[in-house]
Give the backbone structure.
Amino acid sequence: METLEFQSEARQLLQLMIHSVYSNKDTFLRELVSNASDALDKLRLEAFRDKDLDADTADPRITIEVDRAERTLTVRDNGIGMTRDDVVALIGTIAKSGTAEFLRALKERDGSSSDELIGQFGIGFYSTFMVADRVTLVTKHPRSAEGVRWESDGGGTYTIEPVADAQQGTAVTLRLKPADDDDHLPDYTDPARLRQIVKRYADFITWPITLAGEDGAEPEVVNSRKALWARPQSEVTEEEYAEFYRHVSHDWNKPLETISLKAEGTFEYQALLFIPSQAPLDLFMRERKRGVQLYVKRVFIMDDCEELMPEYLRFVKGVVDAQDLSLNVSREILQQDRQIQLMRRRLVKKVLATFKTMMSDRPENYAVLWREFGAVLKEGLLSDPDNRDAILAVCSFASTRDAEATTTLADYVERMRDGQEEIYYMTGDSRAAVENSPHLEALLAKGYEVLILTDPVDEMWVGAVPEFQGKRFQSVAKGEVDLGSDEDRSQAEQDFADLTSWLTETLSEQVKEVRLSSRLTTSPACVVGDSHDLTPTLEKMYRAMGQELPRVKRILELNPAHPLVEGLRAALADGRDRAELAPVAELLHGSALLAEGGDLPDPARFARVLADHLQRGL
Ligand SMILES: Nc1ncnc2c1ncn2[C@@H]1O[C@H](COP(=O)(O)OP(=O)(O)OP(=O)(O)O)[C@@H](O)[C@H]1O
């Protein structure tokens, strides 16, 4: 027998379970049954793929046994089982991405609000330690010659030893803590209670779940085993859908939205999809385990079938059951299958249509959807041009019109002022940075509304999406924004020609042009990009990804009505020493960068020039 240590994160999670304040302890049984069901799915699939596998698939089942005298509860399956290495890797460590963040977040909270976090993370097998003071797992994989016995009391270590005569599959035995009403700990040796929990949490599991009879009573199958997606929607309760969602997603929360779809005709399939109510911690990490599962004629084929859902809908969970695919479909086949492509197109349309309905009929749910997944959904504006309009239709954006409420593009267009041809937006790191940026001054003063885009992905899609309802997207920090009359403009341009050409020359290292602006009312200057230039944020993003880029020179725009700009013009006209005025030019450019929340190319130099200048003014 060997004694091994839990990995430190696993140890922390176990401690959390042992001292759990999680009020619904019944969920441990759901986790065990769910794992057993997965193990049976995997065995069937493996046996199908490998005809030589030495496994018994004749009577797949999950059995729950209790021993009231010993106060033990055993959940047994004759599924795929685990090898010794599996046990050490899967039970002794937590490979799940986001574990570290989860533990950190948990530490920052007090006990009372940890339920929700635990729910979001899902602690699987370890949840058994909420109800047991010792857990024993005996398992055998068909490819291993002998079985393994794993045991732990949830402290820092576990033991592991070979078992010569183990049966195929896995048996998890819990030595139950005494029932304790104060601790929300019911008596899990009570068959009535167990029956009720299985009915409630696992009725849809397609494998039979048998409650072994005590005192000579007949064993009984307690679940109805009906595939939920095959039942008419009207017959399924919301609670049943929610349980099924938890089974496929391993998320303990309720789904935000349930979508059911039946396609009939030449290519028949059923889909039952869910929108989670909370983004997982690993939403932005590429490696993910669970998305949409593929079944063929009720037989589980694979988890996270990427061919069915595009990357930007990676948060959608659920099941698609196709009637006309072969049971031995592989990823390679799926990628080329035209039927699968049609299916995917239809599913995406259905999901996007659901978002649209949520927007109009269930605005609170839509708000949650957007808050949790909006940034991901917007990736589709780049990656899925075919559905661009449908995605734009369900987007909402912060805007200068309201500090809290977001707006749809349709509503924005509706409110556009007479003569306004474009949808104005500004990208930036935060709402405050955008709102305080000089670029917005004149537009706001004249009553135009500007969309405030602060997600990193916004920088990318606005460059790729040409228009919405025939209105182009126009960055207020790019290209020409023309708000004044043409006559005023050409007069001013003449008046300031000497100044702009002198500044263009003096600042030629930093900017490609200096010109007059109609964007500004109170600031002296701002920096803008050409229509097709990268924005500074995008430039930074590409650099962070390791791309070599030439430095993008931008354009300095001046406010001719500002006393500083006017003063500079007059000084130049009076023939003041240009070398003496050069630091002013530099400060003007530097402060325009600071005002938009940008970075100075050489902050130390800026500070020095500023100090010199201030000193001279004393
Ligand atoms: N009865 C079982 N038969 C075979 N393998 C199992 C069994 N129970 C657990 N496992 C293996 O151990 C792994 C870890 O299980 P655990 O319940 O902790 O997490 P999970 O099911 O992967 O995810 P989650 O914590 O989100 O539920 C499983 O993914 C599976 O590979």
Summary: The two ends are 83 Å apart (CA to CA). Residues 2-225 form a domain with the Heat Shock Protein 90 fold (CATH 3.30.565.10). Residues 31, 35-36, 39, 77, 79-82, 90, 122-125, 170, 250 surround adenosine-5'-triphosphate (CB under 6 Å).
